[in-house]
Structures are given as C-alpha cells and as structure tokens.
C-alpha cells in the first residue's frame, strides 16, 4: 500500500494548502437552504398525505372518542402551520418528535440503527473498491482484450440486476445450498459473546449482504480504475519510469495508480444516495437491523415523526457526502476551485 | 454528479465536436463496439416483445389460464403463478408497462433537464447560480426513499410514479446540458454566428441543442435503466400497482414463492436485468464513442 | 501488504470465522421469528398485533381461553356472575409476584383497566367503556366489575390478548405512552424480559416463580425477520425454531419434511376466527340492487380462492358468523353458490348487459347510472389483501365484470373506506373474535357506519338487525343468543351487503423434536424440546 501513502501524503498536503476558505464557506452556505428545503418537503409530504396516522397506531375496533383522544395525545388536532412551526423549532433543538409506535424520540431511534447501516455500507464500499482496483488494473492491461470485455460484462451485469434478486439468489446458493454463511440477521440468535468472538460472529453474518451490495457497486470503480490507468499509462512520467527500466508492476502501482485513482476517491461521496437505496433492499432481505428496515416499518405503520426523522437523516447524509465530494474535487482539481 | 452513473462528470469529459453530423457519427462509432451491439440487441428484443405482445402469447395475463404454480412447460413457457395466471404473458405484457414507465420518466426528465440546463448555461450569472442551487437541492433528494414514501401514503399509481421519478431525475441532465452549453458557447463558430446576429432562440435550438443531445442520450440510457431498477425495488417492498402488470409487480408478487416456484422469482429478475443491461451497454458505448475512446 | 497476502488473510479469516461459529448448539435459546419490530412491549396500550405477539409471554390476563374458548383460571382463580350478568366478582390468585419481586394485587387490575386498557387498548375500550360502570376492589384479592346493563361476553375479553394486567407501581404517575418500562417491561407471565435489540432480537428467560410452574424451555429469543421467505429459509437452515406463520406455498414442502411440524391454529382471541369479507359500498348506485350483489356472490368461486390464495389453509365461509364461534355460527344457510349462469341471468335482469361473451357489461336503464356505463368497479384493500383482488378480478371477468385493484396502506385505507367512504368494494378480514359481540356486531349495526376503522363497511342499515344485536348482547343464556344470531344471519344472507369468502386459519411451524405448544400468546411456556 506504499503508493497510497505516498499519494495521500503528497496530494492532500498540497491540496489542502491550496483549498482556500472562501470556497469552503461558499459551499457551506449553499448547503443551508438545501437542508431547509429538504425539511420542508419532508414535512409537507408526510402531513398533507391522506390517511389518519392514529388509525395505524390504534388498529382495529377503536371508537370515535378514542381516535379524538389519541389525536389530541399526539398533537395532531392542531392546525398545520402551527404543527410546522413547532416542528421546525424542535428540529433546531435536535428533537425530531416522538415516534407513535415506539414511544421514544425518533432521532434516537434512527441514530441507534445508523451503526448497522454504516457497517453494511462501509464494508460494501471497501469490499467493492478492494475488488475493483485489481480487476480494473487487470482489465487495463490489455484494453478491449478478452479479459477486459469479460470483466466489463460481469460487473455491468451485476450492476444491472435488481438488488433483491441478487440477494435472494445469494441466500439460496451461498447460505442455503452451500451453508457457508447464515441466512439472516446480524448476530447468532441469543448469542452472549463479547469482544473478538462477537466481532467474528457479526463479520460472519455480514459477509453475504456486504458482498451482494459490493458487487453492485463495482461497475463504477472498475470502470474508473481501468479508464484512469489506460490514460495514465500513456503519459510521459510513466514512459519515463518505464524507460528507467522499472518493472511493469512497479510502474503500475507506483507511478500510474495514484493519479488514476483520483476519480475513484472523489466519486465515493456521489454514490451515497444509491448505496443507501441498495442497502434498504438488502437489509430487508437479510433482516439486517439498519435504517432501511426501520424505514419499511415506519412506512407500514405510518409513523410520521419517525418517517420524517429518517427522511431528513438520509437526505442530510447525502447532502454532506456531496459537500465533502465537492471539497475533495476542489482540493484536487484546481479548475473547479477557480470557478 | 451525484447520479452520474459511472462517476464521470460528463461535462468535463465530452470534448467539443462541431455539430455537423455529431449524432450520426456517434452512433456509427458506437456500432463498431461489441458491447453496443449486444446492448442494442437486448433493447431491440425487448422493444419487439412490447410491440408484438398480443401475438406472442394467447393468454390474458390477468386471467386464470392454468393450474396453480405449474412449473415451466410448453404450454406455459415460464410457468404459472399461484392463482394460475401465465407468467410468460405477464412478462411479455409487462414489458409494455415497464418500458412505458422508463420512457415517460426519461421524457419528463429530458424536458426539465434540457430546459433548465440550457437556460442556465446560456445566460450564466445570477440565473445560472439560482438554477444550479435548485438543481443541487433536487439532486440530493433520496429518490428511492421519496418515491417509496409517496407511493406508500398516496397509494400506487403509474402516473404518480412517472411524475415523481421524472421530477427528481432531471438534475443530472440539467448539469450535463449546462456544461455542454457553456463549453460550446466558447467555440469560434458559435461566437461567430452570435456576432453575425443570430437570435438566442436560434442559437439554442439550432446550434447548442444538437451539440448536447448525444450526451443527453447517454445519460437517458443510464437513467432509464435506473428507473427500471427503482420500479422493481418498489415492487419488491410491496408498493407496486396491481392493476398494471410490470416486471416490478411480477417480482413483488413472487416474494412469497421463493422456494415453491423459483420461476416466479427468476424470470422477472432476468427480464429486468436484461433490459437494464441493454440500456447501460448502449449508453456506455454511445458515451465512449462520443469521447472518441 | 501485497494483494496475495490480503486475499490469503481474508480466506483465513473467513475459514476461522466459519469454523468456530458453526458449533453453536450449546445453550442456544428457543428462537421464534417475528415479522416486524414491535417498537415497544406494553400490550395494554395498543392492539397492534406485532406488540401482542412479541409481548404475550410477559403478561397474564385474569382468565385464559381453552381450545373451545371456555374461560379457565389465570390470574383470577374463580368468579361469580350476579344481577343477571351486570356484576362480575373475581377472586385473584394468592402469592403471584411481578418479575421485579413485588406482589400482585387487585389494585394492579383496577389500575390496568382504568388507566391503560380503557384508555388506550382500542378493542377493550370500544367494547367495555360504554357499558362498564366501575371496578371496585373489595380486598387485595377480590374485585368486582359493575355494568350498566347485563353484559354477556366479558369473560371472553379478559385473556392476555384483550386485557393484559400491568403493574401499578411501575406505571403510576408516568405517561404510559412514553414510559421507559414499555421497553424494559415487568409482568407476571411465564417469561421475564432480558434484553431488546431494536430491529434485531428480543430475549426472555423463564420465570422460575411462575404460578403454574417454571417453563421447561429456559431461554426464548424472538428474532425480527421481516421477509417471509427469509423466515422460512432461516427455519429450514436451523436458525429459527418457530414460525408464527408460513407462506402458503411453502407449507406443503415443510409439511413433508420430517424435521418439522406444521399445525393449524384458529388464532387467539381478538385476532381469531377471521372471515375474509368483500363489502359492497351500498351508498353507490351500482350496488343498490341486491341482484347485482347476489350476482357477484354467484360469480365468486370461493373454493378456488381457498385453494389458490390460502393454499387450502382455512375453509369456505358458509355463514356471516365464523364457524369458530360454534354456538352462534349458522350452518344451515343457503348462501349463493358458485354458479356463473345464475350470475349472468341476474346481471341481465338488473340491466347490466354484454354485447358478446367476454365483453365488459354495460348499463341499460339502471337507476342512477348513465346509459352504456361499463361495469368497472374498484376493489380497495390493504396491501396484504390484494391477492384476493387478483383472483376475484380473474373470476368476475368471466361474467363480464371488471375490477380495478387498489391497494392502500392501512391508515389511508381506513380513511378512504370508513371516513370518506370513497370506494366501490372493499376487502376486509373481519376477525369475529371469541364472541359475536366482539367482532361481528360492528360489521352490521347502523350506528357503527364510519368514521371508525373496521366498522360497518357496507353502510348496511336494517333496524331489525340493530335491535336483534342489542337483544343478543344482554341475553345471558346461550340458547336465546343462538336463536337471535341465527335470525341476524338469515337477514344478512338475504340482503347480501357482504360476500363472505373464506375463513382463515393461522399456520404455525416448529421443530418436530419440540412439543406441547399452546394456542395462546404463551405458546412456548408449556412446551419442551428433546435434544
């Protein structure tokens, strides 16, 4: 991994020096109205929708007085602008309302599910990159050769398949037929393990869902690595390195790879939205206790405060990821900073 | 760039080519690639299925035409579902609805994206700033989540689906178009025709738009693939519209039959994968040929 | 690190992980699969089925119901009914302790009813609050329920599902909807709470102080697995020991597997004896003619619905009241049989004609309908019920009627159907419960037409039926009630405001080496597993 250290030390250092604070502040200011807009859209969407959330909480056989009582209990009998004003006030102080179903703060409900989703998406992302770079390099070795076309075909097909379909085929073959990994969940039932044993238990449960999610993410990374490398291998400094008599492997990893991987790093942030959408489906199939599962339950039980908290958390995550991506672009690519 | 599928900021990568014959050139280039041929063949096959649906099958996909959960046979090429409806005719007729959704979303997104992108790029300044901020706000909306919430609370409906996906899918197009327009405007022949007194409307319609269309088509291909996947995902979590047969609703209906009727899970997933692959391969090849690589 | 080394390390890690965790049978708990995360575990403040399933083992009711729905002692050991059914006196069990060690007394029961059940448990509130006068505690082990008028079905509504008893010392003075105890509950039931990992797992341990003996299965884990197919796969892979439900097509395969037992249960109390019912919106002109309603009933092949939607688990409904309520069910009624010829004749007579076979029928001199209007009606249902719409659409097309299936998520369904009444037909699984008073009355009486969900869907108005229900609810002897309910069903079949399709059964599956499960929320408390 020397190339990466070298690359990181050199690149980040010089980049950060160049990244002026005006650019950061300007970018940050653009985030604020976007975030406000998201809260507004979410609130209106959920509150203008037909259907009485109380009906979902109360279930069958309530009488009219019961529903009026419950509506009052949840402050649903106030006029909409008043509900909205209260809501914005509360959000500003970090309170996203009490979940109807869980009877607890909805933000804390979301946040306690975030680690599981982060673990899944993070592992998938790392796996995807770890698998893509060698594949991309392998494909770049002989552009338009058989192995290039083969690799492209495989990653593009994985990318084109519905997530639930891949997940179910994976469960059927890897978990059930071969018995290599468990079918579902994050830990073994009733396990009281701690420390390393627990970490291994989680890793064992994580392997298949993360692999399925990763396999869908590979297309972009393989493509970028391949294209970047083909580009770089033609350049002067690589030619010089070759002329110096360095081995092809050294040329590849020390001279071509660092620059070729630049777009890979900056594209990660841009994938967050899609990654979360994929994770939602994967979590449902594998019974992984993350925010995707929470979202499905919130939709089904019409848990408005929880739905809003989820909507905002996901949106903010995407905004933040885009913000960081833009900063990274700005840092590494002077053209954008000037703009 | 958040939804640029392969991470390219196309505006940066697409070099400016004079407008004459740019589209035909791109297509001719694309056709020399095996990936493009496969992609177009897949799309062609699917288009044929959509057009010829009534002649390909003798069964009404909504009616009971066989025993419950019959496995694939000569009578029922892809088997039957629990109710006894023919899956093959479901897939064949589902092609129509699925393609209709993808194309309509593409149309809505193109209209919004091209309009906003070309205005933004052409006028620049404060108009550009405001429009791009709006574009960014739309771009970060979690699309799948938004559609799921709307369908869940308002009930399923194809028009609803098309509208929401269309209205949230345009930002990438707007950015691509804007980038193209900005780049093209700087070219000599554009500056020249502007100096010669060509009207803005004329410039946009006859000079700039032909230039940006290939890039738009690339993005459209990739976007329509994504629309099919989103539609399938909605079907999977039970938010499909049962009064219309689409690949997504077929995949959703199959969920309880994972083991008892593998064909119900397998074939819809297969159809979706093939179509999305078709869109992606065609879009890719077109994009590569524009970039001249 | 080199690539080869990374790959090697990964393989090693994977192997060691797989190797050391496959041997996990030691001290493994009994695992049941839950479909949804209950969110909280206080079943006195909600009728949410998920909460009741998950929290059932924690609590007790005053009585339990045996397989014939006869009340048997639980927290109450005996009871007397006086004043012709307007006074119930209960004698409570001595020496029962809450899971935190505090003694259980009559004050807990009174508190549970007054502060929790009668406020927040929608079924118990709806049925009791209007007739119950007050609850008196005579001493720590005796209490009385006083009613305004004789009330027959009380004992059917006191089991753990309808009236779980909660500890007063935990809930007093704290908002019950936001009480932390809802997530760390205290009960008297056969299992006590250990831990709750949201979205993942709830753990319980046997209550060694349980009044009817400590359960043989010591550790219980409820795993949350939302996808029904995944549940079955996890069951087959040995990760799960009990399924509360089995998707229809998987049942036969599981049934043929010697490792498993697949058993039908009628379900318990409030969620029991469910009849899947198609309701006509009688406010719509198209359904005001009883011939049209009868035609739909004749065009419906209920046997096929049973076979292809329920995969045979259940029975064709042959009366408005479920066969599960034996005394009230009328088995001798002539409800319209599957007969497309009769259906077509009735439609022709009603003015709905078709040009050629297979075409959708159109209106000819039908009151309230413009000429030539095609017979296209909506079929509204909650997402889980759309499969009935799929098959009914296919069946009704055969007589020239067209259905448009519209799934609506529960809150929207409730508002659309019961508040706005904006629907043509609606599918509802009416759970009759353990007495017609619980789950049948609400479906027919004219005072119960909207806006409350799951009320009188059809907007059926018949004053004779109204007064028959009132008479039946205060009559205490079964013979009189049986006669009254029989008359109600005759009238309902004549007027056909609904098509009663099928009675559903609950299917559970468990490991063949385990046995002794009960048909109650305490299912596992009486069971044991051979090793």
- The protein's oligomeric status is heterotrimer
Report how far the terminal alpha carbons of chain B are from each other. Answer: 21 Å
How large is the count of helical segments of chain A? 16
Shape of chain B: elongated
The most extensive interface between chains reads: A-C, 71 and 76 residues
Largest beta sheet of chain B, briefly? none
SSE pattern of chain B:
HHHHHHHHHHH
Principal-axis shape of chain A equals: globular
Set down the secondary structure blueprint.
The complex is a heterotrimer of chains A (339), B (293) and C (531).
Chain A: H1 2-18, H2 21-48, H3 53-58, H4 64-73, H5 80-92, H6 106-141, H7 146-160, H8 163-177, H9 195-233, H10 236-243, H11 248-260, H12 262-270, H13 272-286, H14 291-301, H15 304-332, H16 334-338
Helix pairs in contact in A: 1-11, 2-15, 6-7, 6-9, 6-15, 7-9, 8-9, 8-13, 9-11, 9-13, 10-11, 12-15, 13-14, 14-15
Chain B: H1 10-13, H2 22-30, H3 34-56, H4 87-123, H5 125-140, H6 143-154, H7 158-185, H8 188-195, H9 200-236, H10 247-253, H11 262-290
Helix pairs in contact in B: 2-11, 3-4, 3-11, 4-5, 4-7, 4-9, 5-7, 6-7, 7-9, 9-10, 9-11, 10-11
Chain C: H1 3-22, E1 30-34, H2 49-55, E2 63-65, E3 71-73, E4 76-82, E5 87-92, H3 106-120, H4 122-128, E6 132-139, E7 142-147, H5 168-171, E8 191-197, E9 201-206, E10 219-224, H6 228-236, E11 242-243, H7 248-256, E12 260-265, E13 274-280, H8 290-299, H9 302-308, E14 314-316, H10 340-350, E15 352-353, E16 362-363, E17 376-381, H11 386-397, E18 402-407, H12 410-419, E19 425-431, H13 436-439, H14 441-444, H15 463-474, H16 478-495, E20 498-504, E21 506-511, E22 514-515, E23 528-529
Parallel strand pairs in C: 1-10, 1-11, 17-18, 17-19
Antiparallel strand pairs in C: 2-3, 4-5, 5-7, 6-7, 8-9, 9-10, 11-21, 12-21, 13-19, 13-20, 14-20, 15-16, 22-23
Helix pairs in contact in C: 3-4, 8-10, 15-16
